Amino acid sequence: MCAAIAAARHGAKVAIIHDRPMFGGNASSEVRMWPMGAKGRDLRETGLFEEIILTNMHRNPTRAYGIWDSVLFEKVKMQEGVTSLLNCSVFDAETKGGKILSVTGWQTTTYQHHRVEADIFIDCSGDSILAELCGAEYRMGREAREEFDESAAPAVADRKTMGNSCLIQVRETPVSIPYTPPKWARSIPDEDVMSTRPHLPDQFRDNNFWWMELGGEEDTIEDAEEIRDKLLALSFGVWDHIKNQGDHNADKWELDWAGFLPGKRESRRYVGDHILCQKEVQAGGKFHDIIAYGGWQIDDHPPAGFDHRGEPTTYYRCPCFGIPYRCLYSKNIENLMFAGRNISVTHVAMAASRVMATCALLGQAAGTAAAIAMEKGILPRDILDHIHLLQKTLMGDDAYLPEHKRTVSQLCQKASLEGESAEIENLRNGVDRPTAEGENLASVPAGSDITYRLAEESFVTQARIIFDSDLNRDTVKGGIQEVRDCPTLCNRPLDLKPYTFPATMVQSFEVLADGEVIFREDDNHQRLVKIPVARKIRTLTLRPLSTYGEEKARIFSFDFE
Ligand SMILES: Cc1cc2nc3c(=O)[nH]c(=O)nc-3n(C[C@H](O)[C@H](O)[C@H](O)COP(=O)(O)OP(=O)(O)OC[C@H]3O[C@@H](n4cnc5c(N)ncnc54)[C@H](O)[C@@H]3O)c2cc1C
């Protein structure tokens, strides 16, 4: 999604082919996993990811899956420049001389083949489906420890992966509800087997059943159907255990939904010009061609999944780490790019980079790079010669690159700046979030003006604003507080209260050119706002009028070019 949207916003003509009826992959209501990202204060992923999340927060106070699906649907469907082919599964590719010419998919709703020709293809299928179709180099399974000197890797390389999961969703009810499992449900009479899996209401009310996992010792692609059958037996067996085996205090909880589409954690990973590994991730990933970052821990599940006796995952700490552009394009197929869990990483590094907010940043980077390559008539690899342009474009679109500053135009820097804040200069310091160096924002009273005065009348193309969306969600109240970071709720207690929107956000504001209002928004719910100015002016003013609760308007950036 993020690759398609980013490429289209930068002028490329895009077709997105997806084999499901809705967008979102593992985040959609068909699978129901929660997009997570970098851990730690002020590290939340911005750019397209935050745009999607803020739209959802604005429209979805109880974090219902149906509303979330509609947000994802419209982000793609309403995006100018994107043609979407849903329910369409790619099964063929035409190649010539190390290049893909076209891909073909079968659409199950129209019974039609769709053949799509393109200059650049971005495979975000998770399974790297183009790898076998076009001969791109890929890996599957775990590297041997010595290959990349990875302490978390097994001594000997194998084909094992993390497993698949079919999730369930449960809800609290006012009365006791009995549960009769199907005869084919897996029998789990033994409490010991479940002891390391959080399955009591106090544990699952603010969590989900991610640990119901199988298939990592098989082939998560070729054996996917058999694995799904075992997963379904496990899902209904786990709920039977909770309801009927011993006292779990779950009488007033019922099974609300059971997923029949397994979420896949791991399968094929493409090989790019660089393979990111554990040591680099744990060293913070300092790369000249950084285009995204991760920061979830290395979260490596045992291949046996639920059948592993012991903890369902092993965590290895890692800091916020940069991911290089060289992991996003194929080593040997010159017009093939990728984003998501299938990028060029080792199994261990993938255990950190696989979370969805990181995948979204990778998608935005790949789509933006593809659009730049198209515009320049060059191949994805050649973007390395224009890496500063890619980084600048990403940061301009509010994608954060740790330790990097956005370049603010000379025109903006030379203008005088006035506003009722001692920190007014933060608005053009090129940093759009709090960092170790400071808060990087200016707070001004609602209704007051922030004004740039240019020495002489000059042509201004656009103004760019970054409001404070409360990256740590400190001001979001209601719901289940422990999971207020998640765009959806899996399990629902009876006393659920609607979530509020971040109180720090500016709700209504005006932008004025030479004292004339050129833009007004009364229902703002976005952090990044770009406003076309396209005229010669002497003054440019931002007038925040109201917020979602805070007394002052909190603004990270207001600059122009
Ligand atoms: C059970 C489970 C729990 C997880 N927990 C978390 C979590 O809490 N937080 C988190 O952030 N991440 C979590 N993850 C990891 C995360 O969900 C994945 O790593 C991430 O979704 C990968 O994103 P992606 O876009 O690469 O792939 P996906 O989300 O898998 O999307 C790929 C899409 O491509 C489609 N596709 C595949 N083949 C074709 C084809 N031939 N033609 C057309 N379309 C095709 C698929 O249908 C799918 O929708 C979890 C994963 C699983 C399975």
Explained architecture:
This protein is α+β, with helices and mostly antiparallel strands and 561 residues long. 21% of the residues lie in helices and 26% in strands. It is built from 13 helices and 25 strands. It has helices spanning 2-9, 48-59, 65-77, 129-134, 145-148, 191-194, 201-204, 224-244, 278-282, 347-353, 356-376, 387-396, 410-414; strands at residues 14-17, 82-85, 88-96, 99-107, 112-117, 121-123, 138-140, 164-165, 168-172, 213-214, 253-258, 263-264, 268-270, 290-294, 298-300, 314-316, 321-324, 336-338, 416-418, 442-445, 450-467, 506-513, 516-521, 528-547, 552-560. The strands form 9 sheets. Strands 19, 20, 21, 22, 23, 24 and 25 form a 7-stranded antiparallel beta sheet that branches. It has a 3-stranded antiparallel beta sheet with strand order 3-4-5. A hairpin with a 2-residue loop joins strand 22 (506-513) and strand 23 (516-521). Helix 2 (48-59) crosses helix 3 (65-77). The two termini are 29 Å apart. The model has no long low-confidence stretch (mean pLDDT 97). The structure holds flavin-adenine dinucleotide. Flavin-adenine dinucleotide is lined by residues 17-20, 25-26, 33-36, 89-90, 105, 124-127, 129, 165, 210, 263-265, 340-342, 354-356, 359.
